[in-house]
Amino acid sequence: MNRTSPLVHVVDDDAAVREALALLISTVGLRVVTWAHPEEFLAGFDAESVGAVVLDLRMPGLSGLTVIER
């Protein structure tokens, strides 16, 4: 995996969805980090990094829309 390729963050409380999306995204050469909890994602996310976020809208605790607002 190219360490300079964009980093895609997958945030979803469903492990099967996280794993499937991570596998799919990695097949095109992108780096993927998965997060089970939106709070952990917000604490570990580097806003200066190049990449994208794939975010579940319905999660326990913080919703995906709240994560976007923060």
Question: What is the secondary structure topology, with strand pairs?
Answer:
Blueprint: E1 7-11, H1 15-26, E2 31-35, H2 38-44, E3 51-55, H3 64-69
Parallel strand pairs: 1-2, 1-3
Notes on the structure:
This protein has 70 residues and is an alpha/beta fold. It is 36% helix and 21% strand. The protein is built from three helices and three strands; from the N terminus they run βαβαβα. The chain has a three-stranded parallel beta sheet with strand order 2-1-3. Strand 1, helix 1 and strand 2 form a beta-alpha-beta unit. The chain is globular, with a radius of gyration of 12 Å. The mean pLDDT is 90.
Features:
3-stranded parallel beta sheet; alpha/beta; 70 residues; 3 helices; single chain
In brief:
The protein is α/β, with parallel strands linked by helices and 70 residues long. It is built from three helices and three strands; from the N terminus they run βαβαβα. It has a three-stranded parallel beta sheet with strand order 2-1-3.
